[in-house]
Write a structure and sequence with these properties.
It is built from 11 helices and 12 strands. The chain has 337 residues and is of the alpha/beta class. α2 (58-70) packs across α3, α4 packs across α5 (159-171) and α5 (159-171) crosses α6. The termini are far apart. Residues 37-334 form the NADP-dependent oxidoreductase domain.
């Protein structure tokens, strides 16, 4: 039984002195209340797979989870593919007896074959198998938010078949809410023909604002909660990189155009402009970036990628950041292409 039921409310219990700085919002029209800053676990999956951030210390990862709990974070997001199951296992172990104090989210539909190559599969049977495997790795009997990681563009199954599998998991009591990641509006509509979608997880940041055009207005209209991933643009908005930064060979960013060559230089030029705005507001660039994301009326939470405890503690002030329309317009002008 989850704490939500014991307390007769959808709001999890927060703890720690820092929790008074955290804010909480309801996830869409039907979902639970979650912290406006979420814990992202992609990086703690570690190295040795094709979408790695490089090696990671498991003890440090678990300390990061504990720091997030102490900061009042109640939304923890993971996925099987993060470290090929390792991130799920770490999250489950680190939460321990506090499991029922949080909203635990994982994903499906993006898995690996015997050669550790990533493949997409949204078929009914595959989703059901994945859910059982995630429950075991997480050490829990229920997944609070189960999200389709990517639409099945490999064409194993249409979006409505995937949604029927996820709906069955809700009926079976193994999943509480259903979400989608990286979906377009037409694919969300196809999924909605089977069941209401509780949440969407798109990439969204100052540097990647495309969700503002269609996705966010649609979700706001339909009562779909939105949890943005990469609000710091995978580190570009962390404020710690310069024009001379180079990423290690085992870091996926070393092979991505946004983090190399002329594109990286242009992005660093934009960050320099954002630094002056942040300084005037007496906040950091990461706090400004998260504040920008949370300012959109469709947003419920911003998922921050965490590798060390300070990655959470250093951005707590963003939960309270309030950017007026003039500042938001200034930010957009600073990064305009």
């Amino acid at each position: 039984m989850h704490v939500f039921q014991r307390l007769g409310t959808d709001r999890p219990v927060c703890k720690g002195w820092e929790s008074k700085h955290m804010k909480y919002q309801k996830l869409g029209k039907n979902g639970p209340e979650i912290s406006v800053i979420g814990f992202g676990s992609w990086a703690i999956g570690g190295g040795n797979w094709e979408m790695s951030w490089g090696d990671q210390d498991d003890h440090q990862s678990m300390e990061s989870v504990r720091a997030a709990l102490d900061a009042g974070v109640t939304f923890f997001d993971t996925a099987p593919v993060y470290g090929l199951g390792h991130a799920e296992e770490l999250i489950g172990k680190a939460l321990g007896s506090d499991r029922d104090q949080v909203v635990l989210a994982t994903k499906c539909g993006y898995l690996w074959d015997e050669n550790q190559r990533l493949v997409k599969n949204g078929t009914f049977d595959s989703i059901m198998r994945e859910a059982e495997a995630s429950l075991r790795r997480l050490g829990t009997d229920t997944i609070d938010l189960y999200q389709m990681h990517y639409p099945d563009t490999d064409a194993h199954a249409p979006a409505d078949e995937t949604m029927r599998a996820m709906e069955q998991l809700v009926k079976d009591g193994k999943v509480r809410y259903i979400g989608l990641c990286n979906y377009t509006v037409p694919l969300i509509e196809q999924s909605m023909s089977v069941r209401h979608v509780d949440s969407l997880q798109p990439p969204y940041s100052i540097l990647v604002p495309q969700a503002e055009r269609e996705l966010l207005p649609y979700c706001l209209e339909q009562g779909i909660g939105v949890v943005a991933y990469s609000p710091l643009a995978s580190g570009l908005l962390s404020g710690k990189y310069t024009h001379d930064t180079r990423f290690a060979d085992d870091d996926w960013r070393s092979k991505h155009k946004a983090y190399t060559g002329e594109s990286f230089k242009r992005n660093m030029d934009r960050v320099e402009k954002l630094k002056s705005i942040a300084a005037r507001l007496d906040i950091t660039v990461p706090q400004l970036a998260i504040g920008y994301v949370l300012a959109h009326p469709a947003m419920t939470s911003a998922i921050v990628g965490v590798r060390r405890p300070e990655h959470i503690t250093s951005i707590l002030a963003a939960a309270e950041a309030e950017l007026d329309d003039a500042t938001l317009a200034e930010i957009r002008a600073a990064v305009a292409r």
